[in-house]
From TrEMBL:
This is (S)-2-haloacid dehalogenase. NCBIfam families: HAD-SF-IA-v2, HAD_type_II. Catalyzes the hydrolytic dehalogenation of small (S)-2-haloalkanoic acids to yield the corresponding (R)-2-hydroxyalkanoic acids. Belongs to the HAD-like hydrolase superfamily. S-2-haloalkanoic acid dehalogenase family.
Length: 235
């Protein structure tokens, strides 16, 4: 018999916020002020593409524990020359790096989280560092009960310590915690640690319609198109 779901933990980048639009628009605005032309949609995708590789360097010991803000800056410094941004003043590059703190929420998110919060505890479970998640919540009006980051465990998802640590901090069993994400790999790693799972479809995560990741029928507890739908199905 399955345990009651007492809390929901949310992946953030892609699931809660539209990172592609946020990064694309901030990069385009900065470049425009300096008369730099470029494909800022591709810039956003390339910056994001470096994220899992950088985390893996931490996870396998190539790098010491490093916050996501610092990893984002390493990736930015690597790709900036290809987009004509390397000569920008350091203060402006530093501000661009903080664009990840200012990402917009998907249209359903604030209403959906507000509905879900009436029923259960809602928290982040993100690889983003705490200061990033707090800034993002304030910027986008995200009504979290608390902000939980992989930084607290010094283990990035999909390490088990992140999922089990989240349940432990909330004082609940893993089976009482539901992971909510638009990435099946995240959900599968959570499920392996005993968490419940909800897959949220975000076909525009990469800035354009994409084929949905493959998953098995009934692989996840819920498959929904929005946080609002998830709230209704959990009632």
């Amino acid at each position: 018999m399955k345990q009651e779901i007492r809390a929901l933990a949310f992946d953030v980048f892609g699931t809660v916020v539209d990172w592609h639009r946020g990064i694309r628009e901030e990069a385009a605005a900065l470049a425009g002020r300096h008369g730099i032309d470029g494909d800022w949609a591709r810039f956003a995708r390339e910056w994001r593409a470096g994220y899992p590789r950088a985390m893996d360097q931490v996870r396998n010991g190539e790098l010491p524990w490093t916050r996501i803000d610092a990893l984002h800056r390493l990736i930015l410094d690597d790709i900036a020359p290809r987009f004509g941004l390397a000569s920008l003043p350091e203060t402006e590059l530093a501000q661009l790096n903080l664009a990840w703190h200012r990402l917009p929420a998907w249209p359903d998110v604030v209403e959906g989280l507000t509905l879900l919060k009436r029923q259960r505890i809602i928290t982040t479970l993100s690889n983003g560092n705490v200061s990033l998640l707090v800034d993002m919540a304030r910027h986008a009006g995200l009504p979290w009960d608390c902000v939980i980051s992989a930084e607290l465990f010094r283990h990035y998802k999909p390490d088990p310590e992140a999922y089990l640590g989240c349940a432990d901090l909330l004082g609940i069993a893993p089976g009482e915690l539901m992971m909510v994400a638009c990435h099946p790999s995240d959900l599968r790693a959570a499920r392996e640690q005993g968490l419940r799972t909800a897959y949220v479809v975000r076909p525009l995560e990469m800035g354009q319609a994409k084929a949905l990741p493959e998953f098995e029928q009934n692989e996840f507890d819920f498959v929904v198109d929005s946080f609002i739908e998830l709230a209704r199905r959990l009632e």
